[in-house]
Amino acid sequence: MSNKLYAPIILLLVLAFLIGPFIIIIAASLSAGETLSFPPQGLSLRWVIKVFEVESFRASFGISMFLAIGGTIAALILGIPASYALSRYKVPGAETIRTIVSSPIIVPGIIVGLALLRYFVVPFNFGILFALFLAHTALILPYAVRVVSASLTNLRSDIEEAAVLLGCSRVGAFFRVVMPNIRGGILAAFILGFVTSFNQVPVSLFLSGPGVRTLPIDMLSYMEITYDPSVAALSALLAFMSLGIVFLAERFLGFSRYV
Amino acid sequence: MSDSRFLSLEKLTLSYGKNVAVPEMDLDIAKGELVALLGPSGCGKTTTMRAIAGLMEPASGAIVLDGANITRVPANKRPVGLVFQSYALFPHLNVYENVAFGLKLMGVKGKDLETRVNDGLKTVGLSQYATRKPAELSGGQQQRVSLARSMVMEPKVLLLDEPLSNLDARLRLEMRTELQRVQKESGVTMIFVTHDQVEALAMADRIIVMLDGHIEQIGTPEDIYNNPASDFVADFVGFENVFERVGDTIKTANGDVAISGDIDDATKGLAWRPSMVTLGEGPYEGTVRGTSFAGGTREYLLDTPLGQIKAECDAALPAHDFGAVLKFDLPVAKAAQLARTGSL
Ligand SMILES: Nc1ncnc2c1ncn2[C@@H]1O[C@H](COP(=O)(O)OP(=O)(O)OP(=O)(O)O)[C@@H](O)[C@H]1O
Ligand SMILES: [Mg+2]
């Protein structure tokens, strides 16, 4: 067989592999039956509606949203100045700093979570929510630094000097001519951070307590007790939410340029 | 302060860490002058400009502008404009907003702002491009925006770092006259950097030739062109045959050669343009090692007892073949007499 025939077949397999599970989840969530199954038994929206009725889902969705948005904002507040300093000044050991900042990407999340629990939450008596917030911020920071650094590298630094010569202070130049030009990168970092945080399981696994759980963890424990299709329905809804965000970002910002 | 000392550098020393790029420079620039800062790569032109603009702190010395010592005045408070070689336009702002940027920071608003920005755009002929983004402009147009952006601030001194080097040959000629026109019309004191002597000679009222961080010669274009002060300047403006002179001899690759003529006692060197070399007669002989046709003239590279000599004659005359032996002379009467040598 020639390459011409192989290529489309491989492409189809890859697509099936990527999209297949998603289709199965959607189908399963539309089932009318009592248990999670595929193919679905009949069609109904009852499990989709059920999702909104489960009290703990509502609470944990709120916490996940708070962590994803709050953690990402915190990571950007730390990450933007850090990226700026790394790209504009001759920081001694810049490479080492970059590596350290990126380490949460490299170190498995489960270790980060365990370490935070063992060395912060327990000895310092941190609240779970605060620990989760720290963990998620730390987790998002590398993405923020990477994406923002990339757009800073593409931006010539002489425009800052030009702004200063036209009357700006150094800080003013940063806000007037640097920030507007890395806006796309910041938004891309925000979306990446949000999605990463929202879907995070391993770190959050260790950091859950009474009344404080992220949505993915809540889903796991829900499934341990109840095996109905509402988890599939929730997964499908979350997937659509992520898709929607990425679609809007791509549509209005050309998101894929920055990642 | 007199008008001839509008901008003064006084023993200005500029360094990068331990490396001194410009040691103790003294320089006076008159009000309304168009000055070219000419010199080879790495001689400190950009460094000097950045120091005048305030982007670089001098190690020692002073900068005095219009009677005020501005050495410690921060860059954003100096009445100095700088047009960057890369234009440095703000990519997120359109042409109008780029030009309005500094004025807005100064607190200019409303009708006044509009008038000044539009006047600026008109001066550089870009009125119809006001709403374009920098990325949608040609290099020459970006250059004009950058010029307008600095000009509308009405700086006391406008600095331009290699303003023409990013443009193609035709645009460069156009921008030369454009810059001259803008400078003459506004009367702003302007210093531009170039490493192209033709550009400096064509545009400037006065040329400062720099070498290795110091000033080698300052003079009018005629001065620099006809009376170079050193072997370096002579070579830079096209005197391709340069010799050190001791008494009645010139030092050549093959030892001292006697010369005769009216030479000033202080003269340390003699230099001839190819066009000043007499070809076809004279006391010396050379073998043709290369010829090149340059339109109206033909250049010859000769191997001679004095070393290599470049000579030039009317292209209408019959060409000499490679290997031909020609008589030639270096007439002392025509030579430029150099006050200094040893910088080549
Ligand atoms: N940021 C810097 N750090 C250290 N040394 C520098 C720096 N910038 C310039 N130099 C040195 O200072 C000297 C003068 O440099 P400068 O940029 O002023 O030269 P220039 O005349 O503008 O050259 P060119 O025509 O290539 O632009 C050079 O020897 C250069 O190596
Ligand atoms: Mg330079």
Written account of the structure:
The complex is a heterodimer of chains A (259) and B (344). Chain A is mainly alpha-helical. Chain A has one domain (55-257): MetI-like (MetI-like fold, Orthogonal Bundle). In chain A, 76% of the residues lie in helices and 0% in strands. Chain A is built from twelve helices and no strands. Chain A has helices spanning 3-29, 46-53, 55-88, 94-106, 109-124, 128-153, 158-165, 170-178, 183-198, 202-206, 215-225, 230-253. Chain A is globular, with a radius of gyration of 22 Å. The two termini of chain A are 36 Å apart. The relative contact order of chain A is 0.15. The mean pLDDT of chain A is 84. Chain B is α+β, with helices and mostly antiparallel strands and 344 residues long. Chain B has two domains: 3-231, P-loop containing nucleotide triphosphate hydrolases (Rossmann fold, 3-Layer(aba) Sandwich), CATH 3.40.50; 240-338, OB fold (Dihydrolipoamide Acetyltransferase, E2P), CATH 2.40.50.140. Chain B contains eight helices and 19 strands. Chain B has helices at residues 45-53, 95-106, 110-123, 139-151, 169-186, 197-203, 221-226, 231-236; strands at 7-16, 19-29, 34-38, 60-65, 68-69, 80-83, 157-160, 189-194, 206-211, 214-219, 241-246, 249-252, 255-258, 269-272, 278-294, 297-304, 307-314, 325-329, 336-338. Chain B has a six-stranded mixed sheet, with helices on both faces. A five-stranded antiparallel sheet of chain B has the order 13-12-11-14-19. In chain B, strands 2-1-4-5 form a four-stranded antiparallel sheet, with helices on one face. In chain B, α2 crosses α3. Chain B is elongated. Chain B starts with 6 loop residues before the first strand and ends in a 6-residue tail after the last strand. The model of chain B has no long low-confidence stretch (mean pLDDT 92). The A-B interface holds A 155-156, 158-159, 161-169, 172, 177, 180-181, 183 and B 53-55, 75-78, 80-82, 84, 86, 88-92, 101-102, 105-106, 149-150, 153. The structure holds adenosine-5'-triphosphate and magnesium ion. The site of magnesium ion has 3 residues of chain B, from α1. Chain B: One of its GO terms (molecular function) is ATP hydrolysis activity. Chain B: Keywords: ATP-binding, Nucleotide-binding, Transport. Chain B: Belongs to the ABC transporter superfamily. Chain B: Residues 7-237 form the ABC transporter domain.
